[in-house]
Amino acid sequence: MNEAIDVKTENARQLAAALRQAEFEALDTPFDGLPAPGETIEVASGVHWLRMPLPAALDHINLWLIEDGEGWAIVDSGFALDDTKALWRQLFKGVMAGRPVTRVIVTHFHPDHVGAAGWLCGERGARLWISRTEWLMHKMLMFDDEGENSAFQAEFYRANGLADADADTMLARGNGYRTVSSEAPHDFHRLAEGDLVEIGGNEWRIMVSTGHAPEHVSLYCEALGVLIAGDQILPRISPNVTLAGSQPEANPLLDFLASIERFRSLPEDTLVLPSHVVPYRGLHTRIDQLARHHRERLDEILTALVRPMTAAEIVPVLFGSGRAFDIYQKGFAMGEALAHLAYLEKQGKLTRETGADGLVRYAPPGTTQD
């Protein structure tokens, strides 16, 4: 029986991988190869693509240099780790030719984006440009000496069915955010929806999104036909959408789906510069793919819920029963499952109830949760 389940799971995994590859191939990826460490590829006039390593399953982040008069504007930073700093110093002397950094722009507070920003600002005497909520989120996490936010989230996941051993591991980890981030400056230039920012003689419009992060910034330049999209519209992979324990009644998946629809106003042939994988064209196609992906995951949850289930029991429905996760990926998977369950609950398709054992379970309306 177990062998049959394993075969079914593996077949489903292979089918999902094939579908993701087919969707990716439907996009136009105009650049051959990847930027070498410490080097860049010019993807539009004055806009340069570079990559920094990440010590995770997602092993890289794409960053962007924009020629800005006599200097350079930097968009996103990578982790504040020694190898990242060494690559930045290589860029300062090489590609950037010792020219000044005019500003460090950050799309959102996640540490692969803001982690080295404070260090870059200090190293190059540059100003930080970021939305207010993302700056506040970063500051809150940097000031969390005892890792209270991480501990609270771990207990939230435990109440939603995460195994005690995994929750205990999250608790013991403490504030991992601080280990890969430098503290951002105490003053910053605020970016807000609709702002027009002049960089290198071109006008870039600020577009703010929610769902993946609370006030995520993307930058669109009509003259160049370029969208620096951050994590909002990634090719091949779907941005993580997490329900946080601090806002258990929120609906982040609804926010995310509404946010990506706003990008449909941009031309289909816009060159999208995402934070992961590779640049691409086919913006509307990718929006359709992401929306369909989440609709399918929601339908899978409704099909699976033949009895009251915790979010932890829904994780294999979304990601496959045979998939191995490290502790970080387990956190992402729990957050993603909870975001989908919250979306369905807000639609009235599920009810949520805490049982006598203290665990939160979801079920179709009218289902007895005893």
Structure commentary:
The chain is of the alpha/beta class and 370 residues long. It has a single domain, classed as Metallo-beta-lactamase, Chain A. It is built from eleven helices and 14 strands. Strands 1-2-3-4-5-6-7 form a seven-stranded mixed sheet. The chain has a five-stranded mixed sheet with strand order 8-9-10-11-12. It has a two-stranded antiparallel ribbon with strand order 13-14. It is globular. The relative contact order is 0.12. The model is unreliable at 4-9 (pLDDT under 50).
The SS-based structural class is alpha/beta
From the 3D coordinates, which CATH architecture would you assign? 4-Layer Sandwich
Number of helices: 11
- Unreliable spans: 4-9
Q: What do we call the CATH homologous superfamily?
A: Ribonuclease Z/Hydroxyacylglutathione hydrolase-like
Ends distance: 28 Å
Q: Main β-sheet: number of strands, strand sense, barrel status?
A: 7 strands, mixed
Tell me the strand order in the biggest sheet: 1-2-3-4-5-6-7
- Overall domain count: 1
Helix content: 25-40%
Average of the residue pLDDT scores: 94
Shape: globular
Assigned CATH class: Alpha Beta
What fold name stands as the CATH topology? Metallo-beta-lactamase, Chain A
Observed structural traits:
seven-stranded mixed β-sheet, globular, alpha/beta, 39% helix, Metallo-beta-lactamase, Chain A, 11 helices, five-stranded mixed β-sheet, 370 residues, single chain
